[in-house]
Amino acid sequence: MNVIQKKFYLTFIEQDRYLFFLEGLKSTLILTFASFLLGVAFGVLLCAAGRSANPVLRRIAQVLSYILVEIPTLVLLMVFVYIIFGSSVLPVMVIVVVGLTLKAGAYLSAIFSTALDTVSGGELEAARTLGMSRWQAFRYVALPQAAAAALPLCKNQFVYTMQETSVVGYLAVMDLTRASSVVSSRTMDALFGLLAVTAIYFIIGAVVKRLMGLLVTRKGGALA
């Protein structure tokens, strides 16, 4: 057995250490998809509040967005886990999803707002002139165009959300990064663990960006 084979064996095979990476992959996928999908919903609400005619609601949304964007992800999660939910019986994974959801939602809110700004006011006025209600004009004129503009940015935000999950190991959550760290501490060799984690992150990001890219193309074709 040569050196490379030995390192591979020690990292993944001996004592079934590959199970750490499988558990880490599962946690990373759950955190990423849950936080992103819930973040979309929260981002829509935050965007709506930020564009509201109510100045108080608009100001609250602006301040909340600013705070969530400016606070580092790890610090935000530590505040949630150790302070806000410090005495809670909720699992750490659930608390982390809440924190990552708010973080993703703040970024997505800005994306949605920018996308809505690309819609021509003249088109909305024309729709209203044709007898559409405000909701109908938004549903059939503004929303399709805004969605087409937002999707390319959303796929980048998905990857960014996935990258932000790499800090949850500091909160004793067995994600991919922590799995690599645990295995490396036992084998005293980080090479194959880090290579595996890097490849997994790259593959997940590439696949999701490809799928969302197809969705963008389809949406663009539908609009055409």
Question: Can you tell me about this structure?
Answer:
With 224 residues, this protein is mostly helical. The chain has one domain (3-223): MetI-like (MetI-like fold, Orthogonal Bundle), CATH 1.10.3720. The chain is built from 9 helices and no strands.
Compose a concise summary of this entry:
This protein has 224 residues and is mainly α. The protein contains nine helices and no strands.
Average pLDDT figure: 89
Q: How many angstroms separate the termini? A: 59 Å
Shape type: elongated
- The low-confidence parts are none
- What percentage of residues falls in helices of 4 or more residues? over 70%
- What is the count of structural domains? 1
Tally the helices: what do you get? Answer: 9
Radius of gyration, CA atoms, in whole angstroms = 22 Å
CATH architecture: Orthogonal Bundle
Topology as a string of helices (H) and strands (E): HHHHHHHHH
CATH class: Mainly Alpha
List keywords for this structure.
224 residues; mainly alpha; MetI-like fold; elongated
Question: What secondary-structure arrangement, pairings included, does this model have?
Answer:
Layout: H1 3-13, H2 18-50, H3 55-70, H4 73-84, H5 92-117, H6 121-129, H7 134-164, H8 176-187, H9 191-223
Helix pairs in contact: 2-3, 2-5, 2-7, 2-8, 3-5, 4-5, 5-7, 6-7, 7-9, 8-9
